Amino acid sequence: MKTVLSIKGLTKDFGRLRAVNQLNLEVQQGQVFGMLGPNGSGKTTTLGMLMGVINPTGGEFTWFGEPPTHTLRKKIGAVLEHPIFYPYLSGQKNLELNAMIKECPTDNIAKVLDLVELSGRKDDKYKTYSLGMKQRLAIASALLNEPTVLILDEPTNGLDPMGIAEIRELTKKIAASGKTIILASHLLDEVQKVCTHFAVLKKGNLIHTGPVDDVGRGSETVEVQADVANLSELLLDFSGTASINRENGYFQVTLRDDFHGKDLNRFLFDKGVVASHLVTKKKSLEKMFLEILSEH
Ligand SMILES: Nc1ncnc2c1ncn2[C@@H]1O[C@H](COP(=O)(O)OP(=O)(O)OP(=O)(O)O)[C@@H](O)[C@H]1O
């Protein structure tokens, strides 16, 4: 897999405040990489440095294996904050202006408008757009020069549930077209639903990074019930059991690393016991996130 972004020791001080501290990260091609962290954790500052609008105090990073240059940055589209669109111009005209500023051909406008589902409203004035439509137009503008990487900073901020769902679907659609996406968010739910990989930042420090699918790995809990008197003994006999407790009439079995519900099911079956109820529960990202933050 190709490394799109490699960050080493990236640091930013604002006077006495260290906003980003010795950040090391890698983003691979095709990932939807979430930067997750509470407000003030350094996400925007990091993205600003990656886009060349904030000067790092220390450290370095490469895009596509090369130190950042103006030409390289053209391969990266970013929606960092609300871009300046003219309220009395249409979506179409605004994109034409943006294309001119970015020195890219206007041929892509129809395509990006179609992608963000604004073709039907392209001739309406920007000021008549909903917040969700404005955000979609900003994404369309970032895609004008066909970047290979798209950076989104808090893309669903301020949107209603419908707008959030639309941006989420759009992000997935853009990722499916082969682009790498880096998305900063303070919303666990957003990262869990959209991202393939993520990093957690706290007060400028990286405190966790890995695949979203791995969250809660090795910490599966299985809710189980079977019509036998010695079920608790059997569950404790199972080598994958870390602990058990009883809740709502079921046994909750927390499994050791690398053991899964199906292993427990097979163990019970081999003992001649058929479970009447067996449900595997993964630790939610929220629980994991809160644990990660409290550990540090
Ligand atoms: N230009 C600046 N001057 C001084 N301090 C700054 C500046 N920009 C950011 N900071 C501080 O750096 C820290 C990190 O801010 P940053 O905006 O990067 O965090 P964030 O994770 O993106 O949070 P948010 O989602 O609230 O924007 C904060 O304490 C913030 O107050």
From TrEMBL:
Provide the ABC transporter domain boundaries: 5-228
Specify whether Nucleotide-binding is a keyword of the entry: yes
Name of one Pfam family that matches: ABC_tran
List the InterPro entries hit by this protein, alphabetically.
Answer: AAA+_ATPase (IPR003593), ABC_transporter-like_ATP-bd (IPR003439), ABC_transporter-like_CS (IPR017871), P-loop_NTPase (IPR027417)
| Top-rank taxon | Bacteria
Which residues does UniProt call coiled coil?
none
Is Lyase given among the entry's keywords?
no
Which keywords accompany this UniProt record? ATP-binding, Nucleotide-binding, Transport
> What PROSITE patterns has UniProt attached to this entry?
ABC_TRANSPORTER_1, ABC_TRANSPORTER_2
What GO molecular function annotations does the UniProt record carry, in alphabetical order?
ATP binding; ATP hydrolysis activity
Question: Could you tell me which PANTHER family the record lists for this protein?
Answer: ABC TRANSPORTER, ATP-BINDING PROTEIN
Family of the protein in this entry: Belongs to the ABC transporter superfamily.
Q: What is this protein called?
A: ATP-binding cassette domain-containing protein
Q: Which organism is it from?
A: Chryseolinea soli
